[in-house]
Write a structure and sequence with these properties.
Layout lengths: L6 E4 L16 E2 L2 E2 H12 L4 E5 L5 H5 L6 E4 L7 H10 L7 E6 L7 H9 L9 E5 L5 E8 L3 H5 L8 H6 L4 E5 L12 H10 L7
Length: 206
């Protein structure tokens, strides 16, 4: 594992299906989800953690206060996920050989999961992408991109989340199975949060 690998957390989206609530501020084990994700990324390695955020002022900045992470306002965040991905990639030092991209709204991922994906990275084997997957093999997050792909990621527009780049590298991608469905499980509605909490009364502890 490259212990200095940067991690980009995509956290600039509007959470429009939450009907006024912000899913990234929902508590998980007593901690706002976004703060939990930043702490998880910080614990996963020694590299920089970049958090792409909506423009200030926004409550998401408050829950990240005091953490050793780079807060990256995304002026065009309303465009969609690719604006955050673009900004995060462009914020990286030019010497970086790969970077991990993490969605902010996956409440069951752990630091050990991130390390497992990072440990699979081998920059000598010709692959371009290493990606977390469910236990059944469905592709999910986090995703590590080799720096060769940074120009393509930095040129994306819209809300695809980099799917075009990923699909073009399907034969040079390594899937890393993680326990259960946590590589894909996100909670986009109040009902989904209520159902998840009913199944996980103590939420998730790393």
């Amino acid at each position: 594992m490259d212990h200095a690998m940067p991690i980009i957390i995509l956290a600039a989206g509007g959470a429009t299906r939450m009907r006024g609530r912000d899913k990234l501020l929902e508590p998980v084990a007593g901690v706002p989800l976004l703060r939990r994700q930043a702490l998880m990324a910080r614990a996963a390695g020694q590299g920089p953690v970049v958090v792409a955020l909506p423009p200030r002022p926004h409550l998401r900045y408050d829950v990240l206060e005091g953490l050793d992470v780079q807060l990256l306002p995304v002026a065009d965040a309303a465009e969609g996920m690719n604006a955050s991905l673009r900004a995060g990639i462009l914020a990286l030092p030019g010497t970086v050989r790969c970077a991990m991209v993490l969605l902010a709204d996956l409440p069951e991922l752990t630091a050990a999961d991130l390390r497992r994906v990072a440990d699979a990275v081998d920059l000598t084997d010709g692959n371009m992408i290493w990606r977390g997957a469910t236990a059944q093999g469905a592709p999910g997050h986090p995703i590590v991109f080799r720096s060769d792909l940074f120009p393509a990621l930095a040129a994306l527009e819209g809300d695809s989340g980099g799917r075009e780049v990923v699909s073009q590298q399907a034969d040079r991608m390594v899937l890393v199975p993680l326990p259960g469905d946590r590589a894909r499980l996100d909670l986009d509605t109040p009902e989904a949060w209520a159902a998840w909490r009913a199944r996980n009364p103590d939420a998730v502890q790393d």
